[in-house]
């Protein structure tokens, strides 16, 4: 919820303040090199021809203008050490607080051409600081700068705490397309800019708000200049009131100071500025710049007592503490020159990139808005669809374990609605007998779970309705059964049971049972065509979309060496672009053939060797090479004969904040002792740093409950994967009422995540950890035995509102656990838990 709030504020401020920050950024980038650009544009003003005699001294320059242009009131005189550098004077100008600077030839005091471009940079400065709107603009830019700090911090938070690799955090991925690339550009480049924008914003506010400026002085423990000036003024009170200095006295002071300064200064300098005294108090202020200054504002200060010929109060910039340097050099820190020329250039690039985030953020917002509009439009269009007065009334019932049947149910409903049919969609666990009897046409879309069982959501229907006889003579029905041919004995078994039950109760089949093997598009299309014939209409094609994305295999670890069971591996996958999933979700991996298998296939069909070898290997990588093919010169026609390898499903063992997707995969072998498709690809054939295809599928029936009510996690073997994701999410949510019951073969080999689980138990993040290792004693001891032993605690937790999660093998664990729960709690209580979705399973 907090992340959603931050996200909403982030994008809202982005499309409002983003444009202002873009202007501030671009103008700041231009203004950061104002002096360099002006010098490049005005070489005739900044440089002169070197002459054989010395440059004019400050006194000679002063007297020159006293004689030639006495109306000029000179504030200060600057002398550059470089032979070809011009000198300058600053004179009083009405309306200009800091006066006007005039560049002169240092050898003859001739006034050089006026600097071109100054008005442009003055405009850029006003645009940067005030948007040229005065105090109103100052408030707008100040608020926008505060928002920039929020952007930086909320942007980090929205990416955090995902433990991405360094590459994931800072490397752009140009191979991405569309919205993914735009997001990557926005997030990754934004990560590059974090430090730059924080420094720019926090120093920029120095000029925006008095409270911020005072706070900076307080935090860095530096006395503000205004306070120093006030203290100095107080010290001056009661002192002698000096008379105004005369031109002759000024000239004498300059002669003495110029000679004395050059004699007494102990270090080289690149330029020196003499501020002409206003009173004859014997003091003349001097500022000078080191020969190699740290930055353009790194100035040293001193006073020269021209009556005593003594240099006093020398304040060297290099001797200041870091906090004092920062507060006396706010502009260089703001533009980056404080840190050196390279960093200043990086600051300039960062400022220029400010519009990038406004543009990419706006594009992401518009794409998201467009998508929402399309969804809303589609929804409204369906709702607004006129029902044909002669249309049939369709009841579509889905029995889904992992969401595929539900998805197909809604796709079927939309297809019928577009043809003006009256449609109602119902979850099988909400289906009432009377609703079924009153239906005219019924479509059942049902998954088969485990080894021929109904999904968990259909258990109540099986018990209460399929065990009895109903009068269904008035109903016409059809069944779409989902399953996998790899489980030949139980392929689509629940769908077949449903089909036969309707027939036995007098219902009329609209068309024969249609079976779908691993969500095959061809099988689904048969369903669509059959419905089209029944409704005598052209139905839109039903497409069960799977969005496979590219992942990198980062790490593979054998978890159970020397185990009595098959090898189990922990697989760590890193996404190539931002991915999101929830605890309890499913990873569908697209297996690929090993190179040896492909080579054996090509040997069997040598005429395929005429094709480009790398191309044919790539195209055959995800095809079922056990299917026979006939000769055809066209590669596409050959591939059409080879079905795609079926995907493999795995419970996800990690949550997105970990930055990687973890799977726990046990190697499977067929009767010919050949390693399984999915387990072989993940544990042996896919190389480390290799690329694989993966589809994230939501599994809402196994998602976490909201709130901090207790949960009981029960599992065995690789089922620990789904339970670990739930526990990790619970712990991240500060919900610690967790109980884990886990079983495997041997404690010494098969206790996966032992260190982490025991640490959670020790720190109170896990209240109970009960384990059963079947082969560690003479008599086999399983999870359901342990559950019966803990029956008292189980009842107590259920009374407290606990939700039960079961993950692992159906045959060897889930059935026995289900029976144990019935024996301990009673069948009615177990059914209540199912109906309340307080008994959730992810079993296979």
From TrEMBL:
Keywords: Electron transport, Flavoprotein, FMN, Membrane, Transmembrane, Transmembrane helix, Transport
Keyword Transport: yes
Record flagged with keyword Transmembrane: yes
Parts of the chain that traverse the membrane: 12-33, 140-160, 181-207, 338-366
Molecular function via GO: FMN binding; oxidoreductase activity
InterPro entries cross-referenced by the UniProt entry: FAD-bd_FR_type, Flavdoxin-like, Flavodoxin/NO_synth, Flavoprot_Pyr_Nucl_cyt_Rdtase, Flavoprotein-like_sf, FNR_nucleotide-bd, OxRdtase_FAD/NAD-bd, PepSY-ass_TM
Domain FAD-binding FR-type, chain residue ranges per copy: 546-705
Domain Flavodoxin-like stretches: 394-532
Name the record gives this protein: Sulfite reductase flavoprotein subunit alpha
């Amino acid at each position: 919820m907090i992340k959603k709030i931050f996200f909403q504020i982030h994008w809202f401020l982005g499309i409002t303040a983003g444009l202002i920050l873009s202007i501030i950024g671009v103008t700041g980038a231009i203004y950061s090199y104002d002096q360099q650009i002006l010098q490049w544009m005005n070489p005739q003003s900044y440089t002169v021809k070197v002459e054989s005699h010395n440059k004019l001294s400050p006194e000679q320059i002063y007297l020159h203008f006293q004689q030639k242009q006495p109306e000029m009131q000179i504030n200060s005189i600057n002398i550059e050490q470089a032979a070809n550098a011009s000198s300058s004077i600053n004179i009083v100008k009405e309306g200009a607080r800091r006066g006007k600077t005039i560049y002169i030839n240092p050898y003859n005091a001739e006034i050089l051409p006026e600097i071109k471009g100054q008005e442009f940079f003055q405009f850029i400065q006003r645009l940067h600081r005030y948007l040229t709107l005065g105090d109103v603009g100052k408030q707008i830019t100040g608020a926008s700068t505060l928002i920039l700090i929020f952007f930086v911090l909320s942007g980090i938070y929205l990416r955090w705490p995902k433990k991405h690799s360094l590459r994931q955090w800072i490397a752009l991925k140009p191979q991405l397309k569309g919205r993914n690339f735009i997001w990557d550009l926005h997030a990754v480049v934004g990560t590059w800019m974090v430090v730059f924008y924080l420094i720019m914003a926090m120093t920029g506010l120095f000029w925006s708000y008095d409270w911020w400026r005072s706070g900076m002085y307080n935090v860095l423990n530096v006395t503000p200049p205004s306070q120093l000036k006030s203290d100095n003024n107080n010290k001056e009170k009661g002192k002698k009131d000096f008379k105004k200095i005369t031109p002759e006295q000024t000239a004498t002071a300059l002669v003495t100071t110029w000679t004395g300064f050059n004699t007494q200064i102990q270090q080289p300098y690149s330029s020196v500025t003499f501020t002409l005294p206003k009173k004859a108090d014997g003091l003349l202020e001097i500022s000078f710049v080191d020969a190699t200054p740290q930055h353009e504002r790194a100035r040293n200060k001193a006073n020269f007592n021209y009556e005593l010929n003594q240099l006093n109060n020398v304040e060297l910039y290099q001797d200041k503490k870091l906090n004092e340097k920062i507060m006396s050099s706010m502009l260089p820190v703001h533009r980056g020159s404080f840190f050196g020329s390279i960093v200043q250039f990086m600051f300039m690039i960062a400022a220029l990139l400010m519009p990038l985030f406004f543009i990419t953020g706006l594009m992401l917002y518009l794409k998201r808005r467009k998508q929402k509009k399309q969804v809303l439009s589609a929804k409204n269009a369906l709702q607004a669809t006129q029902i044909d007065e002669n249309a049939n009334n369709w009841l579509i019932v889905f029995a889904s374990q992992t969401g595929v049947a539900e998805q197909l149910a809604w796709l079927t409903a939309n297809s019928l609605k577009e043809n003006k049919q009256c449609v109602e969609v119902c979850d099988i666990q909400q289906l009432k007998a009377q609703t079924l009897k009153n239906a005219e046409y019924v479509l059942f879309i049902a998954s088969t779970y485990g080894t021929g069982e109904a999904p968990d959501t259909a258990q109540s229907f099986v018990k209460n309705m399929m065990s009895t006889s109903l009068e269904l003579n008035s109903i016409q029905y059809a069944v779409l059964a989902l399953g996998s041919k790899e489980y030949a004995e139980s392929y689509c078994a629940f769908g077949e049971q449903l089909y036969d039950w309707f027939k036995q109760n007098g219902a009329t089949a609209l068309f024969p049972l249609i079976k779908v093997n691993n969500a095959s598009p061809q099988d689904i299309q048969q369903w669509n065509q059959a419905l089209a014939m029944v409704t005598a209409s052209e139905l839109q094609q039903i497409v069960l979309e799977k969005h496979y994305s590219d992942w990198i295999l980062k790490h593979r670890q054998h978890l159970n060496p020397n185990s009595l069971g098959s090898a189990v591996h922990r697989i760590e996958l890193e996404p190539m672009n931002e991915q999101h999933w929830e605890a309890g979700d499913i990873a569908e991996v697209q297996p690929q053939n090993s190179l040896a298998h492909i080579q054996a296939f090509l040997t069997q069909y040598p005429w395929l060797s005429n094709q480009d070898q790398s191309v044919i290997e790539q195209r055959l990588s995800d095809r079922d090479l056990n299917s026979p093919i006939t000769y055809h010169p066209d590669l596409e026609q050959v591939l059409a004969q080879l079905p795609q390898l079926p995907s493999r499903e795995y419970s996800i063992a990690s949550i997105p904040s970990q930055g990687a997707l973890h799977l726990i995969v046990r190697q499977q072998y067929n009767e010919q002792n050949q390693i399984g498709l999915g387990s072989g690809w993940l544990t042996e054939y896919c190389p480390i740093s290799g690329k694989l295809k993966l589809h994230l599928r939501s599994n809402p029936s196994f998602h976490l409950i909201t709130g901090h009510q207790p949960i009981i996690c029960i599992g065995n073997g690789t089922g620990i994967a789904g339970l670990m994701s739930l526990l990790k999410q619970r712990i991240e949510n500060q919900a610690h009422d967790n109980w884990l019951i886990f079983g495997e073969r041997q404690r010494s080999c098969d206790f996966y995540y032992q260190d982490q689980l025991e640490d959670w138990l020790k720190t109170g993040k896990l209240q109970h950890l009960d384990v059963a290792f079947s082969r560690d004693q003479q008599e086999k001891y399983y999870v359901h035995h342990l559950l019966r032993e803990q029956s008292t605690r189980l009842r107590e937790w259920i009374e407290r509102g606990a939700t039960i999660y079961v993950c692992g093998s159906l045959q060897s664990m889930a059935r026995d656990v289900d029976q144990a729960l019935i024996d301990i709690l009673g069948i009615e209580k177990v059914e209540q838990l199912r109906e309340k979705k307080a008994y959730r399973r992810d079993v296979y």
